[in-house]
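Quick one from the shared queue. A colleague (R.T.) flagged 2-methylcitrate dehydratase PrpD as missing a structural entry in our internal table.

Convert sequence to structure tokens.
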Amino acid sequence: MVDDVVAWRTALAGRLDSLGDGLPSGVRRRAALVLVDDLAAMVAGHAHADVASFTGAMHGSGSEATVLDGSRAARDRAAAANAVAAGWDELDEGYRPATCHGGLYAVPAALAEAEAARASLGELLTAVVAGYEVATAVARLFPAPRPLVLHPHATLAPIGAAAAVAWLRTRSGGAVLAAADVAASLSMPGPFRLATAGAQVRNLWAAAGAVSGFLAVDACHAGLTADPRTMTDVFTQGYGHQLSEDELTSRPARFAILDGYHKLYAACQYTHSALEAARDLASAPGWDADQVESIEIATHPLARPLDSTAPETALGGKFSLPHVIAAVLATGRDDAEVFSAGHLHDPQVRDLRPRVRIVPYAPLPGAPHDRPARLTVRLRDGSTRTATCLSAVGGPDRPLTENQVLAKAAGLTADAAPAFGAQARSLVEGTTADDRLWADVLGLMLDVTPGATP
């Protein structure tokens, strides 16, 4: 087993070293789309009062890097502020082959380091690919037990952040893994339950991971290193995860960033199939939510623990299957505002939530239909209405198109950064030169002068 882990690490380091030859065009384009998607989520996230309050606490001294509200901070603090904003609305990019958000872990730290170090757009994109590759590889090697006990934002964010920053500083696969080992020892046992409980500290884990990523890279540079057994010890002995035999022996033919997904709905991805089923019912002729007597949702194992009927925060609502279903049935909408705090106390939504009963979807189909939902609503007149969604949009069989992601990004940033949409398209399509300073590109996207304080 030890030899297998050594071979796995050697292969991963080799994939990282190959990035020094430049990104293949498909990988480069995909990395740019992940970058744009997460940047737009940051811009939108910074509009929330709680995020703005946290960002204010992050300013302190230093102005090395941009916070996506247009302010500036030291690089690690800017990364922390942007990480909180990126995940706030549940609109950041994600990764289905293992339970994690590779972009959320890599992008905030990579942004800050690239700007502070005067790196180019191309160098930033490569660092995002490197951070994404390491975080997702670790997630696949140590798959989280079901039902989820620990949240991947806590266990994996330091690793993705450290890998991205180490790549920008060293361009060495071995050095990246050494930093990831230190970062693994700094990871956090954040309980998944806190997400379903709506505890906002869950949104801090990606931020803490970004800061820990910088700390891990600085520590390695100073000689405060771990060893190659560290990750295995942390995840198997510390967190109780099992090693995946399949991942140990597999050698991926392509970079993991190509297998990510993009989200349209501002709620936990595990709820999306139920969300779509509810929308189908609510958009049917003659629908009247006041006539609902009871609601049964048959769904997959990852969604069933999301059973709170009285969420108290927007985060709790996004991780509450009854709330997501009730909000859509009551409003007939699926836009981000429906899942904001404003609808938590809507009388009709509040009345519908306790009527939801969650049961297993049986038999459970295989991938890509392994996250299905079947919604059955009984009306007061005794009739029933049913809708089924085997796989929500954004899944492997229904991926968002590039134009859909760019339209989403433009919509999220239209008010705060009107130039963002056009600049994002140019970045993804490659008409923005990869040798251009990232600081200059970001300034154009936010319509601010690089280095200026708004």
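The chain has two domains: 2-261, 269-389.
The two ends are 54 Å apart (CA to CA).
Added to the table.
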